Automatic annotation (TrEMBL):
Residues of the signal peptide: 1-20
Domain J: 22-86
Record-given protein name: DnaJ-domain-containing protein
UniProt keywords, alphabetically: Chaperone, Metal-binding, Repeat, Signal, Zinc, Zinc-finger
Pfam family, one: DnaJ_C
Biological process according to GO: protein folding
InterPro entries, per the entry: DnaJ_C, DnaJ_domain, DnaJ_domain_CS, DNJA1/2-like, HSP40/DnaJ_pept-bd, HSP_DnaJ_Cys-rich_dom, HSP_DnaJ_Cys-rich_dom_sf, J_dom_sf
Zinc finger (CR-type): 141-224
Keyword Mitochondrion (UniProt): no
MF annotations from Gene Ontology: Hsp70 protein binding; unfolded protein binding; zinc ion binding
Amino acid sequence: MGSPVFLFLVVLLAALLVHAADLYKVLELSKSASEQDIRKAYKRLSRKYHPDKNKDPGAEEKFVEIAHAYEVLSDATKRQIYDRHGEEGLRAHEGGQQHYANPFDMFQSFFGGGHHHGQQVRRGPTSVSEFEVSLADIYTGANIDFMIKKRILCDHCRGTGAASSDDIHTCSACGGSGVRIVRQQIMPGMFTQSQVTCNECGGRGKVIGRKCPHCQGNKVMDHTQHYTLEVPRGAPEGHEVVFEGESDESPDWEPGDVVLRIRSKKERGGWRRKESGLYWKETIGVEEPGYVQTIKGEGMPIFEGTGYGDLYVEYNVVLPSEISPETRKRLLHAFHPDSAHSKDEL
């Protein structure tokens, strides 16, 4: 990030603070928000308004505001001062000249590195799963809570794997470049050079002196996250709901997405659907007519539209094991109306 751009962002933030918004409102939080709530809000909103992704007018200003709000509220001392005395208290605490972190560096640090302004980011794998929903919930629309087990960056080391920043050292084998030059003799007096990934640091250029005690140097930890699936009214089979950036985290990539494909739950008997049509199977006696009845406008809601599909009632005839004399006469009349006295073959 070039210094002229950073200076522009500082000036921009200073201008925004003339009409400073409530920092809690910037992150869409209440003042009782926990540290985890603040992290989650920054994670969601910084992705949403990052200028590399969001080209809407005002997105960059919003991104800067979000970074400043997180910088203050994620620091216990700054948050306490802000809660008591506001932005003026923060400026007084810092000697009358408030310090503003580079929002792009903050974003890079939060997500484990690799994200530089204007550069392409390596994306982690996307998780795709089928999610069964009752036909009743698809008909009316519903919010369904569920849990996902995934890996997140260690809260203690933020994905470095080290006990502290002092335990991260430049690799002495490669000098921090992540690669080594290997010289091999192919015949007397003739050598060849090749560049290989450093086996001491794994190509990262850094080595860890003391591992993080929370994740044992693994950089990530297992975590169970709560989500709410919003099922739109009349959602079609296979409709996809995307939770952006909610897949496994890693310091080597930006998290991929979690994709849920909605399927109607298979239930015995009762209702079933075909696109916007709704079907019902009705069991009747042998003396009743067997056909599919169509009831207009009483089927599934039209997805992202108005009105309803049709309701189809399929009549299923059940043959009795014994036939009464009266039913026998009615069947003879139905199949042989002109032969009322014909031989009884039933």
